[in-house]
Specification:
Aspartate Aminotransferase, domain 2; Aspartate Aminotransferase, domain 1; 11 helices; seven-stranded mixed β-sheet; three-stranded antiparallel β-sheet; 374 residues; alpha/beta
Length: 374
């Protein structure tokens, strides 16, 4: 039985006619940049995320970048974030000339540990970027308390977490900004790159719209030095078709995760495999990924067995950001972020996409169990 890590074909087939009609309408209009399709999606996305405003942008990476640019974060400034995330989180900080300051994560939750943040705050600190990794929100209560106490900006990296909730509040609605990615593999994926920034402040929205269009308004009159960070109309149209289906897809992922937990409990592999923890205040987990931890150096053995059985798996992420070559000048060393480092050595993801079947999940767990029992 082939079990891919992700298969978007079935999702596409189910809504193909809607998608093609939306794309054809944009092509017929010949209005590809900004315009009514982008406006409509922004309004729909803001409502879905429980926010006052949303600004479509070119990618999740550019969503982070544009927030930092709009707030004037730059050389001499520090931004606190996690070392266990996709590169774009810290990459955006460095791209504006600021310094990423890393804080370790909570074991098996994979998100920034709020208890470790305050010790890293200095007079140069300007912002905190918590990441809602794998579809579960970071512990935003204490993070926001610290931000208010020290007058810091909070940018939620919700690239993997659209629709997830913390104490009933949607990801992207708690901090000053929320940043989303519509990379095709995300729970809500475009037909290419795309992103979104949410905010509850009209002044911030207006500034974002300047910055996504080279800082100009009207055309050729440049108030700021921005960039070309626009979400195009074709992607907005695709996303508007997909958004009404998102809750059903997320519910399927949640059901799949629950089934995995039952299967692993029955397999009695607790001494060899650790499952992800559900954080107490993360009231809605949307499972962009389902990641396990392999104990006793068994990850390669397990992944080899999965590959031999034609089961997709992936490591998210093999090298923590503080140990990446490009950040060597920051002076971090092995041992500085022990939880992130241990997680990077043990973690691997297994298939959880909505259209996967119970038979597939049983095959995945059975393959892992057989590999570990020899």
């Amino acid at each position: 039985m082939r079990v891919p890590l992700l298969d978007l074909q079935e999702q596409y087939r189910a809504i193909k006619s809607e998608l093609m009609a939306a794309i054809e309408a944009v092509c017929d209009s010949q209005h590809f940049i900004n315009g009514p399709k982008v406006d409509a999606f922004e309004a729909e996305a803001a409502q879905y995320c429980g926010c006052e405003h949303a600004c479509g942008v070119s990618s999740g990476s550019d969503a982070l970048l544009i927030c930092l640019m709009a707030e004037g974060v730059g050389p001499g400034d520090e931004v606190i974030t996690t070392p266990f995330s996709f590169f774009a989180t810290a990459g955006a900080v460095s791209r504006v000339g600021a310094k990423p300051v890393f804080v370790d994560i909570e074991p098996r939750v994979f998100n920034l540990d709020p208890a470790l943040i305050e010790a890293k705050i200095t007079p140069a600190t300007k912002a905190i970027i918590p990441v809602h990794l794998f579809g579960q929100t970071a512990d935003m209560g204490p993070i926001m308390d610290l931000a208010r106490k020290h007058k810091l900006l909070v940018i939620e990296d919700a690239a993997q977490a659209i629709g997830s909730e913390h104490d009933g509040k949607r990801a992207g609605s708690v901090g000053d900004y929320g940043c989303f990615s519509f990379f095709p593999s995300k729970n809500l994926g475009a037909f290419g790159d795309g992103g979104l920034v949410t905010t509850n402040t009209k002044e911030r929205l207006d500034k974002l719209k300047y910055f996504r269009n080279h800082g100009a308004n009207p055309k050729y009159y440049h108030k700021y030095i921005g960039g070309n960070f626009r979400l195009d109309a074709l992607q907005a149209a695709v996303l508007s078709v997909k958004l009404p289906h998102l809750d059903a897809w997320s519910a399927a992922r949640q059901a799949n995760a629950a089934e995995y937990r039952e299967l692993f409990a029955k397999a009695k592999l607790g001494d060899k495999i650790e499952l992800p923890l559900k954080a107490p205040n993360a009231t809605r987990h949307i499972y962009n990924q389902f990641c396990l931890l392999a104990k006793d150096g068994k990850r390669k053995h397990i992944m080899d067995a999965l590959a031999a059985a034609d089961i997709g798996c992936e490591i998210y992420y093999p090298v923590p950001l503080h140990l990446q070559e490009c950040f060597a000048d920051l002076g971090y060393k092995q041992g500085d972020m022990p939880v992130s480092e241990r997680t990077a050595e043990e973690i691997f993801a297994i298939p959880i996409y909505p259209e996967s079947t119970s038979a597939m999940r049983a095959h995945v767990v059975d393959t892992i169990a057989k590999a570990l029992r020899g």
